[in-house]
Amino acid sequence: MERQSRLKNAARREPEAGEAPFASQPTVDLGHLPELTGYLLRRAQLAVFQDFLRSYAEVDIRPGQYAVLTVIEHNPGLTQSQVSNALGIKRANLVALLDSLESRGLAERAPVASDRRSYALYLTDDGRKLMQRLHAINAAHERRVTTRIGPEGRVRLRALLNEVIAAIGNGCEDTDES
Amino acid sequence: MERQSRLKNAARREPEAGEAPFASQPTVDLGHLPELTGYLLRRAQLAVFQDFLRSYAEVDIRPGQYAVLTVIEHNPGLTQSQVSNALGIKRANLVALLDSLESRGLAERAPVASDRRSYALYLTDDGRKLMQRLHAINAAHERRVTTRIGPEGRVRLRALLNEVIAAIGNGCEDTDES
DNA sequence: TATTGTTATACTCTATAACTATA
DNA sequence: TATAGTTATAGAGTATAACAATA
To answer: Gap from B75 CA to C6 C1', in Å?
Structure first.
């Protein structure tokens, strides 16, 4: 019993001709997925990022670029490795991102006198000006995301997410490829 | 004032020779990023998915595969389009995923008598057997993720994430390319 | 005409190895 | 020898267009 060929016994419960495999929008049973933290995190993150992309489409800025610009804004003179470590971006992957920011005149690499291997990162005037717009866009975006959970919900969500992150390990302690 | 060339004025506050650009693990200022819901969601999701990948490495199952297997398990006979819609996966991208599950003998496509364009999806015996292991692995994984926030924290986190998702729009209402 | 599964393709994000120039 | 930035490359995940078979 229960030892038939896979291909044979699996083909039962095939929808009958009149049965309609499922009423079209048939509320598929997702099982325990909606109770799985990782599943909900992924859906929520995708939804929020999509709102982010819509919100920042007019300025053509993506989440990673926003994060890098913000870190440089708050820490002018940081090197690429330091930005990489701070944001969990591989050094190798930061190169193209910075290239685009630099070619758009938003940020730049400046030589470091004390270590000629490194570049110190700064925002340009245009970059600083853009950040004001980005922060305004961000306020509206964040309001949209958290409008339904209210200020207390927002604080609680942040705390819970931080605890989840802490429970596992930050998920990107190694930015290096060693 | 404030109208100098970008390249010129941006290169101030370059770390002096003795200054040390930043003490090595210098706690970089992330600005408002840690208060940004999307940023925390991304970090949390990455951390949880990494734990997922570690947990399921022994059975060589990835999050998308686990989701598809779970949906088929709970809805035997579903078509590929229905699974796509349920999980927000593009029809075109589900093909390779199902190919891998089928070639591993975990799931299979069965012809549908009432519509010869469609395939009804079923788990094989091996697939059903594997699901028991997957659910066991998942219990441990979920426990690890939510151990610090406790059962009430877990319920609250789910509710908050669902509200965030609902506030925006589920993020994948269109699986089709029309 | 519209839909299902499929192929081909492309773009983003991420990950690794290896190179260079410096330290 | 080790590190910073870089290049090349490869792998997921995701997106669109178009096609054959079928409805």
So the answer is: 23
Q: Do B160 and A149 lie within an 8 Å CB cutoff? A: yes
Structure tokens at B20: 């040390």
Q: Which pairing describes strands A107-111 and A119-123: parallel, antiparallel, or unpaired?
A: antiparallel
Does B4 sit within 8 Å of A125, measured CB to CB?
yes
Tokens matching residue B31: 């600005």
Q: Which of A8, A165, A174, A176 to mutate to test the interface with B (most CBs of B within 10 A)?
A: A165
More confident residue, A144 or B170: A144
**What is the band of B26 on the pLDDT scale with cuts at 50, 70, 90?**
low
Query: Please, what is the angle between helix A37-56 and helix A125-146, to 10°?
Result: 130
Residues 13-52 of B with CB under 8 A from A: 13-22, 26, 28-52
Count CB atoms within 10 A of the CB of residue A164: 27
Percent of chain B whose predicted confidence (pLDDT) is above 70: 80
Q: How far apart are CA B176 and CA B81, in angstroms?
A: 9
Burial of B84 (0-12, 13-18, 19+ CB in 10 A): buried
The larger pLDDT score, comparing residue A20 to residue B140, is at B140
